[in-house]
Amino acid sequence: MDLEKGMLVQHASLGIGKVVAVERDAVHVYFAGGDGRVAAKLKLPTALPFLSPAAGANAWLAALPAFRLDPDTGRYEVADGRITHTEALERYRAASSEAAGTEAGAEPAKVKRDRAWKWRRAHEAWEQELGGGEGERLLAAGDVGALVARAVKVEHHVRPLLPAAERPAFAAALSDPASAGEVFGALFALLAAPKPEQAAFERLAAAVAALPAPATLESRWQVLTLLPFVARPDVHMLLEPRTTCAAALRLGIELAYTPEPSWATYAALLGASDRLLAQLAPLGARDHVDVETFFHANVKAPPRAPRTPQPRRTPRLPTAAA
Predict the structure, then answer these.
(1) What backbone torsions phi and psi does residue 22 show, to the nearest 5 degrees?
(2) Helix 217-231, helix 144-156: angle, nearest 10
């Protein structure tokens, strides 16, 4: 078998992994089930009988962050600022009461008002205020004021979860009734589809762009994706530029992000979210609310690994003359 950098391989005992580097007498492989930030170094040709091409794809390995060679050890390790599969899951378990409740031998989870709990409360508020066709009825009646008031009431549940500088953006954006009516019309059309569609998304994006506020392009992403996410967390996802992009960078996810909202970026986010949801399902993840929690848990860069200090040489004292 010819080994190439980037290919997925199956090891007889270590499982599926990704080739990080190939040398004349060794291959460096990072295994999905591995622990730590260093790729395994397998001797060649000794390892060849144990390796075969992987039968399928792997979401974690596909988004594997960059590796760098440590000249002191001759091993490849995850570059500073990136997060490994194991580290990402540990952070998610610490941040999610639902994930923590799936641990073997764990006590029944108590209600914890964490991020996921607040997002689900907002979803319940949406169902009560605007679900079941109520939003469409208000729009048909021309009662945009009631629509805005109810939408702001829903958003209030998750306002503390948003960056402080961006919290006023949502209510300010809906301050003009005529523009807000266009937004709600496009929003309900987007939510009516079984899954996100480009034409409906771009219609909503155009309506949000026509609002008198927010002033920044980044704020448009929040206004554009917040209500779809709250209403349909099974298929839609929040894109809050600072949090989402920082987490994507740590996790090695390519979002093709542009400050001005675009379908290409949103489609990339949805694809990544669906793959992550499948990987998080064994930990109790149900929908994109759990993926949002996962992103938020992995925003910060990991601490840099301390380097082993080299022993200091003791200066040689001159010998006394005989």
Answers:
(1) -125, 125
(2) 90
- Cβ–Cβ < 8 Å for 244, 216: no
DSSP 3-state assignment of 179? helix
- Extents of the domains making up the chain: 8-75, 89-103+112-297
pLDDT in tens, 188-210: 999 999 999 999 999 999 999 99
pLDDT confidence tier of residue 65, bands split at 50, 70 and 90: low
14 with 30: CB under 8 angstroms?
A: no
The sign of the torsion formed by the CA atoms of 218, 224, 229, 235 equals negative
Q: Phi/psi of residue 214, each to 5°?
A: -80, 165
Please tell me what DSSP assigns to residue 166: G
Can you list the alpha helix ranges (DSSP code H) found in 210-306? 217-231, 241-251, 263-280, 288-297
Amino acid at 248: A
- Token representation of residue 231: 């209403």
Q: Give tens-digit pLDDT for 252-281.
A: 788 889 999 999 999 999 999 999 999 899
Q: What is the pTM of this model?
A: 0.74
Phi, psi of 28 (to 5 degrees): -100, 120
Q: If you write DSSP's letter for every residue of 26-45 in order, what string do you get?
A: EEEEEETT--SSB-EEEETT
What tokens were used for 105?
A: 């031998």
